[in-house]
């Protein structure tokens, strides 16, 4: 699995954990909802800038966001 | 500091640690050398696909790559 897909799975995992809808997370991150759908499904080759927005919206330090077996 | 810049600093730190030139790391990652310069200097909004190539070329698990104070 490549990072693009792994990133999406991790975002979804954490989003559900804090009980946010995709729309709510997209709004909080300042990202278009359809773009967020593409990120979570691994279809979007998400950029560092948008990763940053999403991770900040999840309120997690970057090291903690990537500290998951999903990325092994 | 945003993720784009932090990522570049971490790549440079790890590249120097294993004694690779920018050119050698770019070649190993299958990425253009000038693009790699842009990544290291934080000028490139690097994508997940290219992050993946670079991290794999550094031979580090993704969680370990991001496990650095640079990302706090």
TrEMBL record, chains A, B:
Source species, domain of life: Bacteria
Keyword Transcription regulation: yes
Gene Ontology cellular-component terms listed: cytosol
Pfam families the record matches: HTH_3
Alphabetical keyword list: DNA-binding, Transcription, Transcription regulation
UniProt GO molecular function: DNA binding; DNA-binding transcription factor activity
Gene3D superfamilies in the cross-refs: lambda repressor-like DNA-binding domains
PROSITE patterns in UniProt: HTH_CROC1
InterPro entries: Cro/C1-type_HTH, Lambda_DNA-bd_dom_sf, TransReg_Diox_bact_type
Residues covered by the HTH cro/C1-type domain: 11-65
SUPFAM superfamilies hit by this protein: lambda repressor-like DNA-binding domains (SSF47413)
Keyword check for DNA-binding: yes
Protein name as catalogued: Helix-turn-helix transcriptional regulator
């Amino acid at each position: 699995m490549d990072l693009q897909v792994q990133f999406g799975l991790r975002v979804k995992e954490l989003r559900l954990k804090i009980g946010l809808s995709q729309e709510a997370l997209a709004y909080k991150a300042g990202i278009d909802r359809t773009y967020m759908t593409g990120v979570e499904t691994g279809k979007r080759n998400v950029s560092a800038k948008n990763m940053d927005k999403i991770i900040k919206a999840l309120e997690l330090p970057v090291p903690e966001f990537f500290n998951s077996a999903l990325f092994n």
